[in-house]
Amino acid sequence: MSDLNKNDVKACYFANKNIVITGVTSGIGLSITHLLLKQGAIVYGIARNQDKLNDIKTKYPDNFIPVEADLSDDSGWDDVANKLSDSIDTVILNAGTCEYMENGLVDVDLIKRVFDINFFANISAAKLFLNENKWSVKQYCVVSSSAHFFAMPRGEAYGASKAALSYFYESLQLSHPDIAFSIVHPGFVETPLTDKNDFDMPFKITSDKAADIIVKGLMKKKKQINFPWLFMFILKTLGKLPSSLRYKLGKGMVEK
């Protein structure tokens, strides 16, 4: 796993802090977990795979607390709450899923599955951590996606779930000015989810690189952490085109 620049004066920013991270057993979540554990953070790592959680615990026995939970069900957050310490410095909501709709055929069950993980599980987290803030959370990060900046074929469920997530937290943070919120919009990142994609993924980066960018962004308390910059620039530029041109571009993708 990659390390932060040793010359970074904030390299110990997370040392001895209690941090909750979801989706820690693969992809970006695993890379962030390793990075913060190396900084000396105390990580409550949440995932469904107990064996993979145990693997991390074996490597970091002193400061990794595994929490097996299914966050697609509200009771999963009850399991999490019962294992947390009296205070949590940072919450990083990273867990997510992706399923594609084919040929414009609306699959309501598929859409519900995607929203349960990408949206509603993260809303349940907000209810747990923010309504009363009994854990005195100081920093709150949610991993969304750049996918919602420009509509693409097959991405109806995924893009909509991430758009809803970003809007929800951009709005919610206005009511919590004492908490440092960061919303992450990654481009394509090498993860088990993107390994399943059957299309070109421009500007794709490793999960370790993504973790470096996210952690450094959190240390700077950036409101938005968007990367890679060129991909983001292209997507946002396309998103500002007249709707007729956006439609033609999207239609061209479908016809390919």
TrEMBL record:
Listed PANTHER family: DEHYDROGENASE/REDUCTASE SDR FAMILY MEMBER 7B, DEHYDROGENASE_REDUCTASE SDR FAMILY MEMBER 7B
Organism: Pleionea mediterranea
Gene Ontology MF terms in the entry: oxidoreductase activity
Family: Belongs to the short-chain dehydrogenases/reductases (SDR) family.
Protein name: Short-subunit dehydrogenase
Cross-referenced Gene3D superfamilies: NAD(P)-binding Rossmann-like Domain
Keywords: Oxidoreductase
GO CC field: membrane
PROSITE patterns: ADH_SHORT
Xref: SUPFAM superfamilies: NAD(P)-binding Rossmann-fold domains
Highest taxon of the lineage: Bacteria
Chain segments annotated as coiled-coil in the UniProt record: none
